[in-house]
Amino acid sequence: MNFKYLKTFVNVVEHQGFTEVSEAMGLTQSGVSRQIKALEEEIGLQLLSRTTTSVMPTAAGELFYRKAKQILAEWDHLLAECQALKNEWYGQLKIGASTIPASYMLPKIIKIVREKYPKIKFSIHAEDSEDALTMLQKRNIDLAFVGYQIEHEELHEEFVATDKLVLIGCDDLKPLKSLQEIQNVPVIIREKGSGTRKAVEEMLKKSGVDWETLMVAAEVNSTEATLALVEAGVGYAFVSHWSIQDVYRPNIHVLLELPTNRGFYLYAHKSKQTHPLIKMFTEEALRLIK
């Protein structure tokens, strides 16, 4: 059995086509097709059903796909254990991270890990917390680094750091002395699925402020866009203190520090939580992020 053929087959199923797979693996489309044909001939079954618009697994292909994923994961785990014995780590870690971890935590962790183990490569997917967790459940990534907690029987959780929410404004906006005043001024909010938005909604509810009554000036999908709009005087915003603690923005001011029990968490699939690379990265994250 050729492991390259297994990887190609798995990629074709997940991308439902040959074009992206050929580009990602550095192969021609005919090269991808030849590998799939060779695999089907070895198995003695048709694994893919091809039409002019899509490529889908047959019933045999569905079974083969699930088993191939397990075989590749076990092989990858074995290789990583052998690397650990030699202290020569290499390979790729795929991490889905929400805005705050992706922008303000991961860079520090990756820098240290790469200094120790320069052969390790990272694939970072900046998503909102909800999408990152969905990607992990589908096993499209190795780790999800997110801003809210979930209970899922297939996922292993590690608490990494606490957070504080702050209300920010700028020189062009009047100071606010109480949280209740937020109902009478324009506000910049994060998109649905954002961990920050979820934490803000919970905090406002506990404080007696109805989220639906806020005067929303803009809804954005990144912290940087939020900060830029506040700095321009468009409105006020609730952000994580991680996003402003080491950034020089003289026109932005913290008006209120708000109570929250929000944390940041690393999730791995339970079937892969003991993978040496995943375990090592998790330990570094817990050590470096306070």
TrEMBL record:
Keywords: DNA-binding, Transcription, Transcription regulation. The keyword Transferase does not apply. The keyword Cell cycle does not apply. InterPro entries: LysR-like_Sec_metab, LysR_HTH_N, LysR_subst-bd, WH-like_DNA-bd_sf, WH_DNA-bd_sf. It comes from the Bacteria. Pfam families: HTH_1, LysR_substrate. Residues 1-58 form the HTH lysR-type domain. Belongs to the LysR transcriptional regulatory family. NCBIfam families: LysR_Sec_metab. This is Selenium metabolism-associated LysR family transcriptional regulator.
